[in-house]
Amino acid sequence: MAVVDREGMVVSANDSLGALLGTAPDELAGAVAADLVDLTADARTWHAYREVLRGRQSRLRCARRLKHPDGHSLWVQVTVAPLPAEDRAVLLSVADISSRRELQARLRHLQMHDPVTRLPNRTLFFERLSAALEAESYEQSGTGRIGLCYLDLDGFKAINDTLGHRVGDRLLAAVAERLTRCADEAGQARPSIPLVARLGGDEFALLVEDSTGTEQLAELAESVLEAIQDPFDISGQRLSVSASIGVVERHAAGTTPTALMQAADTTLYWAKADGKSRWTLFDPERNAHRMTRQALASTLRPAIDRGEFRLEYQPLVGMEDDRLHGVEALIRWNHPQFGVLTPNRFIGLAEEDGSIVPLGRWVLRTACRQARRWQLDHPDEPPIFVSVNVAVRQVWDSDLVADVAEILAETGLAPHLLQLELTESAVMGSAGRPLQTLKALSDMGVRIAIDDFGTGYSNLAYLSRLPVSVLKLDGTFVRGFQYDDRDSTATRPNPADEVVVEAMIQLAHRLGLTVTAECVETSDQATRLRRIGCDTGQGWLYSRPVPPDRISELLGTPGVQAGVGNP
């Protein structure tokens, strides 16, 4: 302790203070107290100290790091408090807290580092990342950019599960050593060394502050891939793993830790989806597509209840008479944010999350109700059938037979006026429940069509055993007919195309099936298809998909091709 007058000069000091500061107590008398314990180091402490000396503040307490004359450093806690008014002095107390600070430092190190790899852990990583993204840290100096390599190990789980966690932990420690070596090499001749951290499990991150661009991050990612691909010798076993790395590099301004990690996590997923053992750079356009996909997936089920879907119908026209024989129901999503969406934008999502079942049920009911309405509105015309696409998951995840029976009974539509389309890859090789479902529907009188025929398995031997009544030729075959005899400059396709199509049509007819050609766009195509025996056609030559009222206009029209065209 020491007594300090109101001017800040030491009046007297005890032996303990002298020993702590490495100075004789009598030599402390007359010294400037603030200089002894470094109270002038920062403005706030210096101001508070002077306020205590003037009697305007009751107490000051702070921690200071002092240099002992013998060379070692020590941490002290300094307390300044006023003595009774008549003494016109303050009491300076100095306590050695070096051991306490050392313990705190050790505890913090344990708290902030991974015990397996001894790398900074997730907590310390985010602390450093947050500090690096604070404006004052990148506005005063550096490049103002930040980069991150976010990686996990391909095949680590198999090693952990088969050889045990002990071997797995040793492998992680060995990986950490190689990552640290890569970071040290990358930091040579640069202002800072990338921070290597283990974020959990087999996930690691390399944080590059003041990055110079994507090229620097790409070089770092390449070096990491090469380092990890070399086999590891762990407990006498030679182990091989690889890594997938998501790379993000951008301006620090406007970036948050959450946004940077989300981008890195997304890019790591891309690297794995693209085949693993590679690095992938964050792509804003690809991410925007992913975000759109997620937005659609999250709103798909509620959209059914909100009535955001509608059906359009594309005519199926007889090749011989050019009359309307049926229509294919095609779903559209009137999305409030993204506008009108065609099936290729959302049907895959619906199949993934199971919403294809309620959506498919809605399509089936709406299409059957509309077909029955056309029949009632045009009693003098032959009724047209409606064709509805069915996903495989509808067969597995719902009672399709019961749904169809209920909807036909509810709408009053005859079973032979309903056609269900399944893709060739879904139908060919069907066994068990799918085959039983198809047979039950066929026995009910519903027509079964194979869509996009010729692009899947093409198991012709199996075809004869399926309860199928219609083949729809994929448009790739029909496009082979798209040339004009009168145009001598037109590039003619291989004559084998027409031979193949004719053979498929003859085969279908031998099996008692009818054939529909998709993507008929020109009258020349229609003529050739008619000549080789195709039964019905579908495509822009006849009509694009149209609302129900346009189909009503066609009923009774002698020539659909002339009646609709391309509205």
Automatic annotation (TrEMBL):
This is Putative signaling protein. Residues 1-30 form the PAS domain. It comes from Streptomyces afghaniensis 772. Residues 293-559 form the EAL domain. It comes from the Bacteria. SUPFAM superfamilies: EAL domain-like, Nucleotide cyclase, PYP-like sensor domain (PAS domain). Pfam families: EAL, GGDEF, PAS_4. Residues 144-284 form the GGDEF domain. Signal peptide: none annotated. InterPro entries: Biofilm_reg_signaling, EAL_dom, EAL_sf, GGDEF_dom, Nucleotide_cyclase, PAS, PAS-like_dom_sf, PAS_4. PROSITE patterns: EAL, GGDEF, PAS. CDD domains: EAL, GGDEF, PAS. Coiled coil: none annotated.
